[in-house]
Amino acid sequence: MLGLHALTAPPEAVLITEILLVCTALFSLFGGGAENRDQRAVLWAFGIVGVLSLGRVILGPIPNVQPVTIGLLLVGATYGARKGIGIAILVTVLSNIFLGTGIWTLFQAGAWSVIAVGGAVFTNHFIVNEKLIIGRLMVFGFITAFIFDFLVSLSVLIADPTPSVFIAYLITGIPFDLLHAAGNMVISIILGPSMYSTLSRSLSSTNLKIRSVANESRIE
């Protein structure tokens, strides 16, 4: 992704957008059953947000390489679409406090929410009998890198809705998309197993359990 920080919007609009995003995230995380507001569930949710945000900030100097995409795939797979969306939004807003915030935050939060939902929907493809299949996670990580970057690139249309400009922007950004995809594959190998193990343990400690149907909300 190139030049997103060149996009401008009134500070009031950005602030209102981020307030709405945070409200949506908190409702997604803690709405529903009382178990979602259990102290341990709350601490785990904010802990996951903090770790993924920190990882993104630390790897910020490396263009388009970050643990968030793989992390949210696994969050969606274990915690479900609803909680995945909440965590995706909070990670985006929190990490952008350090990396730079603007109208692009809305698109990043939306794109990572899509990734989390994808993790919930396709979980049976890379988690089989509660075991993580690293090779398949790598494939999903490669694909979702391009999905995420495309969705975030739509923010460019705010500055210039000309199709030719948008297409040129996408073509120019391909090297960065490949960096994201390659980074996801490496992170899948190095951090994927520990991420999944930690998320699985967090479910047992918060009295939540995973449903067996991939296209349903996976937390009950």
Fold blueprint:
Elements: H1 11-30, H2 39-58, H3 68-79, H4 81-99, H5 104-121, H6 123-126, E1 127-128, E2 131-132, H7 134-153, H8 156-159, H9 163-172, H10 174-190, H11 192-205
Antiparallel strand pairs: 1-2
Number of domains: 1
- The tally of strands reads 2
Question: What would you call the shape?
Answer: globular
Q: Give the mean pLDDT.
A: 88
CATH topology value: Arp2/3 complex 21 kDa subunit ARPC3
- Major beta-sheet overview: 2 strands, antiparallel
Query: Which regions contain 5 or more consecutive residues with pLDDT less than 50?
Result: 210-220
Category by helix and strand content: mainly alpha
Could you tell me the radius of gyration in angstroms?
17 Å
* Helix fraction bin: over 70%
Trace the largest sheet across and list its strands.
1-2
Description:
The termini are far apart. With about 220 residues, this protein is an all-alpha fold. It has 11 helices and 2 strands, in the order ααααααββααααα. Mean pLDDT is about 90; it is low at about 210-220. About 40% of the residues are buried. It has one domain (about 5-205): Arp2/3 complex 21 kDa subunit ARPC3. The protein is globular, with a radius of gyration of 17 Å. A hairpin with a 2-residue loop joins strand 1 and strand 2. It has a two-stranded antiparallel sheet. The protein has helices at about 10-30, 40-60, 70-80, 80-100, 105-120, 125, 135-155, 155-160, 165-170, 175-190, 190-205; strands at about 125-130, 130.
Supply database-style keywords.
disordered C terminus, Arp2/3 complex 21 kDa subunit ARPC3, 220 residues, mainly alpha
